[in-house]
Specification:
58% helix, mainly alpha, single chain
């Protein structure tokens, strides 16, 4: 499955969240993770402010950390779908192990169906790192975590395993929850 195909799972997850707050949103709301640059800057671009995009992203406000905006749903789309379509790289396979943004990594793990214990452990790890380095609530780009910290965080989120599973799954006719369930089952079998 490539990034564009995985988008059907991301899009389903966005519209079918069971009302529970995403941990990736908690990262943003609590001043953890990336706080400047990248998708924050991109969300300010006039391209996203036309009437069609306002309906898609269901917002008039594009930057409000208390509401976790811009959302990770937007972040994933902007980085892995929109940018790739414009550059002709939309059919590329996922490269999630290369990501450095903590909230997008968490979001991908959540969308893929990683169990809540592992998600909680990763969140607590990030919170601990930021507390120890006095980073919570400060301006941080996506690349603020030290190499070992990032490696440990990704390991807690099983990003390499998730990436491998997503690459190996054939999307075929499957969509949304059916596709997510296949990913979730494959994760359970490998972890």
């Amino acid at each position: 499955m490539n990034n564009e195909e995985f988008w059907t799972v991301v899009d389903y997850f966005k519209s079918n969240n069971k009302g529970e707050e995403l941990r990736s949103d908690q990262i943003v709301k609590h001043g953890l993770g990336q706080t400047i640059g990248g998708y924050f800057d991109e969300a300010q671009h006039p391209h996203w402010h036309n009437e069609q995009n306002k309906k898609i992203w269901e917002t008039e406000t594009y930057y409000d950390t208390q509401s976790a905006k811009p959302s990770q749903y937007f972040h994933f789309y902007e980085y892995y779908v929109e940018n790739r379509l414009q550059s002709g790289k939309d059919k590329k396979l996922p490269t999630y192990p290369w990501l450095k943004c903590p909230q997008l990594l968490m979001y991908i793990a959540e969308v893929a169906g990683l169990d809540s214990k592992r998600l909680d452990d990763a969140y607590e790890f990030l919170e601990k790192v930021e507390k120890e380095r006095n980073l919570k609530g400060t301006e941080k780009s996506a690349k603020y975590l030290k190499s070992e910290e990032l490696k440990d965080y990704k390991k807690l989120l099983c990003i390499s395993t998730i990436n491998k599973i997503i690459k190996e799954i054939e999307k075929g006719e499957k969509q949304g929850e059916e596709l997510r369930e296949e990913i979730r089952n494959a994760i359970r079998m490998k972890l």
